[in-house]
Write a structure and sequence with these properties.
binds magnesium ion; binds adenosine monophosphate; 2 domains
Amino acid sequence: MTITNTSWNLVNTYAGLPDFFYSKIDLSKVSSPHLVVLNNDLAEHLGLDTDELKSREGVAVLSGNALPEGSIPLALAYAGHQFGYFTMLGDGRAMLLGEQVTPHGIYDIHLKGSGKTPYSRGGDGRAALSPMLREYIVSEAMHNLKIPTSRSLAVVTTGDYVLREKILKGAVLTRTARSHIRVGTFEYAAYFGTEENVRQLADYTIDRHYREAAKEDNPYLGLLKEVVKRQASLIAKWQLIGFVHGVMNTDNMAISGETIDYGPCAFMDAYDPEIVYSSIDTYGRYAYKNQPRMGLWNLSRFGETLLPLIHENRDKAVQLAQDAVNEFYDLYHKAWISGMRSKLGIFNEEAGDEELAEDLLNIMHKNMEDYTNTFLALTFSGTLTKETREFKEWQEKWQARLHRQRQTKEEVFELMKNSNPGVIPRNHRVEEALREADEKGDYSVMENLIRALSNPFAHRPDQKEYAALPPPSFCNYKTFCGT
Ligand code: AMP
Ligand code: MG
């Protein structure tokens, strides 16, 4: 069934690639789709009519029961290194409906939980309600925290059940992204395809995301350099906000530089560089402190796929790619320290700034201080509740540092307010919202949370309750892959 006469305005640029890159799929329908959350802001951004999306036809599209006009549904092929091991993957429970044309560019419209595909392997192609709502809440929070990310348009319950450790309600998430080209998509082309396939994908990627690279003498090296830049900037933003992605496999790293695949991610409360939330990350490969290093590891895998395009001489290609990838730490570090300066109200650069930031982190770590709230306390009162001698010494250095710049107190306050969120999606609040929605069918807790997270830098009084720390009973929080 195709729905016509809608505000969907789809093109199918990915379908223009050779069919090596995807499988065309048929819809696998759900019993009784019901819209439980819709993102009005995003709908508007995409030029979609919200009344239409809420209608029976609209919900049919959001559940994968009907296709919007112009859609060619595809499951995308990709591979990836999962915890270091290479494997074939692909959209096993997702499909691309097409790309929505907007004044801000084109966006993938992607359904997650929409049924089996040729890449499902043993899986059922479905998703449970709670993880889809979780992706919705966290991805939108990330967007509002000014971090590049895929976004969530809607969640629809299916009326069907999915069998996991227990029986759960099924759901479909509609997510949007600049694209779903992953490091793993390039690995798929390089390992299972030909050099020509890698070139086709690289050309498509340059055209879609990195037009400036096309102008360089070596566009493929230019592509690598740009991707390194965007990942360095992205991962610095994660570190600065206290976000732990949890499953930075190469198939979960988007070439566009957006955060994608919200599975076992979490925001840290108390500052702990070693923190790991994912129940399956036994050795802490994707611990908070390892994220930059793992980003670099993934970029090296990306660079490898491009070698034949970068230079015909293998050694020369390796050298060029290595030099490009090795820029990562420097770029990452520059982005991180620049973000840290802003968080501390510092406008100009001094050599000691990094030490100042590190010293604060060490104090936080030692005292198990909350990461987000420490910066908030510094913003609003310049001090902390636990006034240790160490902190007081640090505070004096920080104050002296602020006096060595020409900006006024008010300017410092403004900068800090805009750099330190008043509210993040705290794990215990997210869990509470999901429990109410999933178990009781009460979406009001989630809606309130989403509202509080919609402008984390507003510092409104009604947002204050979301800054509260988890109760002591909520310790040792673990997350699970969103299957
Ligand atoms: P993820 O953990 O969501 O990044 O998924 C890793 C891989 O497993 C991807 O290829 C997914 O498409 C696939 N996958 C996850 N859950 C399912 C499922 N329920 N059915 C089929 N494939 C799945
Ligand atoms: Mg994934």
